[in-house]
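Researcher: Structure for this, please.
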Amino acid sequence: MTEKATPAIQLFWALHLKLYQWSAGRIGATLRGLPVLLLTTRGRKTGQARTRALMYLPYGEAFVVVASNLGQKNHPAWWLNLQADPQAEVQVRADKFQVRAREAQGQEREHIFQALAQSTPDYEQYRNFPARRIPLVVLEKQGEPQP
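Model: Predicted structure, token format:
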């Protein structure tokens, strides 16, 4: 799964995001065997809303996203934004939720990695990634879905 963020990959994710938004998640709701959500964070420098489409693992009432950044040596901007302000919004298909982010640690992290590897074996390579520790980010719902 370690890939370079080429212009083609960037274009794919930009188009995927627009199709997901336009179709309220009817298009692009799954990818590579995992469901997809839209995560909206506040830019840590600009304060502007930033939305990204991310594959996720359902985790009880929460969602787990992997801050792999396609295996790059740096963390994705959305994770840096969540570290500055853990409050965010998630859209799953047409439903929107306020969430609070936290990084999974210890046994919870190991349990999540096992579940990810069963869903999509590509994620196993990130368990002991040599370039950096890949955060597993738990997005916990804060209240009921919003219209």
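Researcher: Any notable elements?
Model: The first strand starts at residue 30 and ends at 31. The chain has three helices and eight strands.
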